[in-house]
Structure to design on (1070 residues):
């Protein structure tokens, strides 16, 4: 970090921090708001000035902080001559605009918002010009697009404002995307994303085969931002913005960002034929075309917008020439264009503000009514026309000089002639701005009575015009800055001398032709404008709109074909994509030789396999009969748990078998309210298609499974097996993994399960509050219902089973740490025991005897598990570290007490609560479906008859 | 044995996918159940197959064990897939009661307004 480098961070941050202020200060009034907007700008400007002397001496100030070094992204800034020039322009004009906007905006406009956007934009622009990392630069680049979108669309009530903002964002944003690609290529060629490194590697880049793609992509970004033909059309539409925005964004800053980037990349990209022809030609066409259109625009701001397009073309052309003298001219013209164009925009704003119109046809004769505005506007416009003793003349001379000895495709005249035409048109529209607005007879039909604005409003443009004259008369004043910036652009040690008089050169003749021709053209403006208005020409906005409409309908087409609302279509697309990707991965690398042999298949397993296969096939074939399909699903689940048991996974077998039971019950309950038959409605073609997809997917997954089953892998499981007893205190490694090694995962999973339970409960409530409840009441379920819904045998058996199952559950829970079992299985087993009571004696009867709410159980489980984990903190261990000890109580054997068991208790409670809550919610619906409420445990109680008989006798 | 397991996964996946692509909610739920079996067995199989090598540490000397990690992961996966099935069942049931149809293809209904019944 060089001296003063840290100041760069403050400069970069100040506008963003300051952006928070205006929104707050607006409550203190409009003046306070404007002042607090000016403060960060002034501070940043002062910091910049303290760095300026060193930069003007030719030093480069750098500052760097690593941000994401893995990506090559660092928050690094540097300030050289070019950066200083632009940063000064951004902050200086920003300050003037702050002042001007204070008077321009009306009391109804939300001024706090405006200043916040303005500062955000200012910060983004500053970031672009002082970034030393191209990734960082890209971030700021996109930020300017976004913040300018907000500024252009500031008057939200105007449709033009919204459309213009959208168009600007679409054009500059897509250019920015292209530029990201170009910058990444550049960074890849050089091997660093730091600008200072890239600027040193010009030869490598130009020699690279990726040079042309990178060049085109980066230029796309620059051309869209700087409104170069054919992307020029967004700029005039962005004029719907308030005039301070136009003056700031569209004269000094944002549109110059593209030019800045070309200047920044000039040492690296310029000097090749591709650069010369692309950049020069684009610039030349833009300059001439922009000037031509500007001449025939009646809206003051549109005239200025197209003239800006034209001048940006001029700058682009100069940079395209690729010579150092042209680069100097470009730098000088950047300064000059800023001064006169910002002043002109503000003048246009003043005229609009005071007369309530910007239509040139309704103006004229304002020179006596608005003398100060007239003076400012005229001087600025004459400078734009390139009249001697004003700064526009100087840089235009230099441009014509450079153009006069540039060959284009072997032609010696193409560039000079086109440049002269551009200059001539430029003179014509500049004169028109003055003559048609200020001269001519005084009119009596202005929409408002024109008069000069208050001092605050004309101060800013007046200051700029003073600069226009000052530089025009004494160009050596700007020499230091121009030299520093030009040296930064070209990387050479230049000593340009800015002079008014160069002698009688071709450029002087071209200039004279331009001025005289321009004056003549203006005198013929009336008839020419009539011809222009009749002549057919492509309307850029219409083309853009059609393009956008076509894009939208294309996107809609894709969305509607892929996302038609039917889940089967998404799933089909998803499945096919997965299979294809798997196939691509396979065909790309192939397979290594198998390293494992086949295990033998005992006959029992073969039988189970046949059962499972037949059951699956039957489910598919018979799924229209839903009950039958459910029974078959049960068979499949049981077969799988048998398989788990055989393949050394007793815990999985236990879990599978209990989950299976609960799942089937759940589906049975749901099926009660749904149609029992699935209608046969799929056309045969659809069935064939789905069958094909299913078989391909199945085949693919099966092949994949077979492929890895035949090969060994390195696992991390040895660690678990070795440390299970020592570290976790249990011999059942699966359980120790669940409650200890990966306890965090388990903790998350029980929370998910608890949430699922609550979701179902909430859904049930939402459902029963809606029209579904009424529909349920009106449904006729009498056909489905058993005559003996709570049979005696079942009631008796479940009552007897209850304590047994509970004991088994506790046993499974307690042995879980060392033998197959544990909280998950125990929770499911107890849940089944409870469910049997619901089934046997009905919802109401069981519900009355329930002592603890299921919600509470879920919450309790999660809390216990969490507290157990947190308990480890007390011992200074990380979350969920378990501790254990062995306890010896005299009558029984020595046994183990582990905190993991408490955690498992949490798992147990959550699983039990969640499962019960789910089934409880489903069965509650039954009550709305008109089920009778029974308070007795069974429908027919033989005991009562005995009692009755006794009382009778 | 490996062929048995791989073909089981294949059969379950094929059946699951086919049912998933049906046009009514209930077969879709069944398909999802089949598919979760397939996925669970698939994950379990990633630990490779072993017979009589349960990951219960032997108290009597050296023994070899199968890979316990996939088992632990599949154990929770089984429970979670039950939770997921339950939520889907509830959503399916709710949709049926609200819309009076268990079709999942809303294209066949009034396109503009959606299934408001």
């Amino acid at each position: 970090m060089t001296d003063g480098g840290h100041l760069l961070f403050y400069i970069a941050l100040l506008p963003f921090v300051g952006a928070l202020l205006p929104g707050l200060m607006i409550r203190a009034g409009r003046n306070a708001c404007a002042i607090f907007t000016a403060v960060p700008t002034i501070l940043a400007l002062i910091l910049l000035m303290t760095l300026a002397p060193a930069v003007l001496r030719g030093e480069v100030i750098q500052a760097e902080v690593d941000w994401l070094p893995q990506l090559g992204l660092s928050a690094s800034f540097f300030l050289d001559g070019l950066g200083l020039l632009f940063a000064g322009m951004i902050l200086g004009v920003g300050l003037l605009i702050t002042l001007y906007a204070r008077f321009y905006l009306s009391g109804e406009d939300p001024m706090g918002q405006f200043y916040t956007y303005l500062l955000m934009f200012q910060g983004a622009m500053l970031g672009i010009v002082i970034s030393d990392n191209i990734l960082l630069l890209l971030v700021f680049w996109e930020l300017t697009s976004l913040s300018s979108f907000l500024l252009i669309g500031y008057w939200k009530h105007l449709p033009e404002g919204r459309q213009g903002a959208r168009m600007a964002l679409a054009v500059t944003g897509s250019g920015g995307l292209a530029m990201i690609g170009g910058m990444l290529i550049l960074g890849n060629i050089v091997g660093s994303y730091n600008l200072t490194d890239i600027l040193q590697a010009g030869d490598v880049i130009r020699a690279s085969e990726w040079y042309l793609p990178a060049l085109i992509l980066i230029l796309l970004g620059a051309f869209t931002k700087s409104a170069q033909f054919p992307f020029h059309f967004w700029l005039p539409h962005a004029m719907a913005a308030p005039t301070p925005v136009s003056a700031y964004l569209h004269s000094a800053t944002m549109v110059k960002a593209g030019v800045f980037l070309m200047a920044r990349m000039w040492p690296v990209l310029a000097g090749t034929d591709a650069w010369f022809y692309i950049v020069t030609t684009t610039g030349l066409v833009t300059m001439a075309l922009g000037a031509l259109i500007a001449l025939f625009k009646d809206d003051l701001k549109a005239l200025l917008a197209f003239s800006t397009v034209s001048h940006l073309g001029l700058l682009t052309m100069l940079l395209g020439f690729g010579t150092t003298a042209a680069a100097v001219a470009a730098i000088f013209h950047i300064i000059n264009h800023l001064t006169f164009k910002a002043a002109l925009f503000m003048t246009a704003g003043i005229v609009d503000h005071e007369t309530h119109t910007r239509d040139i046809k309704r103006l004229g004769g304002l020179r006596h009514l608005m003398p100060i505005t007239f003076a400012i506007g005229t001087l600025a416009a004459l400078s734009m026309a390139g009249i001697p003793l004003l700064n526009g003349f100087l840089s235009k001379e230099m441009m014509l000089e450079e153009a006069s000895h540039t060959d284009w495709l072997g032609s010696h005249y193409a560039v000079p002639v086109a440049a002269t035409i551009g200059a001539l048109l430029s003179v014509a529209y500049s004169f028109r701005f003055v003559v048609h607005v200020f001269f001519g007879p005084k009119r009596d039909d202005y929409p408002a009575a024109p008069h000069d604005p208050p001092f605050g409003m004309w101060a800013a443009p007046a200051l700029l015009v003073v600069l226009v004259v000052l530089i025009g008369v004494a160009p050596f004043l700007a020499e230091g800055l121009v030299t520093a910036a030009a040296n930064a652009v070209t990387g050479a040690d230049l000593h340009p001398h800015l002079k008014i008089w160069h002698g009688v050169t071709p450029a002087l003749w071209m200039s004279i032709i331009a001025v005289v021709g321009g004056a003549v053209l203006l005198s013929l403006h009336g008839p020419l404008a009539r011809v222009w208005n009749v002549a057919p020409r492509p309307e850029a906005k219409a083309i853009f709109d059609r393009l956008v409409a076509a894009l939208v309908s294309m996107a809609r087409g894709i969305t509607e074909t892929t996302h038609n609302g039917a889940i089967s279509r998404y799933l089909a697309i998803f499945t096919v994509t997965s299979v294809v990707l798997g196939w691509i991965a396979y065909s790309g690398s192939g397979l290594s030789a198998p390293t494992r042999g086949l295990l033998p298949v005992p006959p029992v397993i073969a039988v189970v396999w046949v059962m499972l296969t037949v059951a699956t096939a039957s489910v598919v074939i018979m799924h229209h009969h839903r009950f039958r399909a459910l029974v078959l699903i049960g068979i499949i689940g049981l077969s799988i748990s048998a398989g788990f048991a055989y393949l050394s996974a007793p815990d999985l077998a236990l879990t599978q078998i209990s989950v299976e039971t609960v799942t089937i019950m759940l589906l049975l309950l749901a099926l009660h309210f749904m149609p029992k038959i699935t209608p046969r409605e799929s056309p045969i073609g659809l069935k064939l298609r789905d069958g094909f997809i299913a078989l391909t997917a199945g085949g693919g997954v099966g092949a994949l499974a077979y492929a890895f089953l035949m090969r060994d892998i390195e696992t991390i499981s040895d660690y678990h097996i070795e440390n299970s007893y020592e570290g976790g205190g249990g011999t059942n490694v699966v359980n120790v993994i669940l409650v200890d090694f990966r306890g965090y995962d388990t903790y998350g999973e029980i929370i998910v399960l608890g949430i699922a339970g609550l979701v179902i409960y909430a859904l049930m409530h939402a459902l029963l509050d809606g029209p579904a409840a009424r529909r349920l009441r009106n449904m006729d379920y009498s056909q489905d219902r058993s005559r003996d819904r709570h049979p005696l045998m079942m009631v008796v058996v479940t009552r007897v089973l209850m304590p047994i199952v509970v004991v088994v559950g506790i046993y499974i829970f307690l042995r879980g740490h060392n033998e197959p079992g544990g909280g998950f299985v125990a929770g499911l087993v107890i849940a089944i025991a409870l469910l049997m009571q619901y089934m046997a004696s009905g919802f109401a009867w069981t519900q009355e005897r329930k002592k603890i709410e299921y919600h509470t159980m879920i919450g309790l489980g999660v809390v216990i598990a969490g507290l157990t984990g947190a308990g480890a903190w007390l011992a200074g261990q990380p979350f969920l570290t378990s501790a254990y000890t062995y306890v010896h109580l005299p009558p029984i054997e020595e046994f183990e007490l582990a905190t993991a068991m408490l955690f498992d208790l949490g798992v147990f409670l959550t699983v039990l609560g969640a499962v019960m809550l789910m089934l409880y919610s489903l069965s509650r619906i039954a009550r709305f479906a008109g089920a009778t409420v029974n308070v007795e445990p069974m429908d027919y109680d033989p005991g009562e008859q005995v009692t009755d008989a006794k009382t009778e006798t | 044995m490996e062929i048995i397991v791989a073909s089981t996964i294949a059969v379950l996946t094929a059946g699951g996918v086919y049912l998933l692509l049906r046009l009514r909610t209930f077969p879709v739920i069944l398909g999802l159940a089949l598919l979760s079996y397939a996925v669970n067995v698939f994950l379990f199989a990633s630990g490779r197959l072993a017979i009589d090598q349960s990951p219960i540490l032997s108290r009597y000397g050296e023994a070899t064990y199968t890979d316990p990690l996939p088992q632990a992961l599949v154990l929770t996966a089984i429970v979670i897939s039950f939770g997921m099935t339950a939520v889907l069942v509830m959503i399916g049931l709710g949709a049926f009661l609200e819309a009076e149809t268990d079709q999942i293809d809303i294209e066949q209904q009034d396109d503009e307004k959606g299934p408001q019944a």
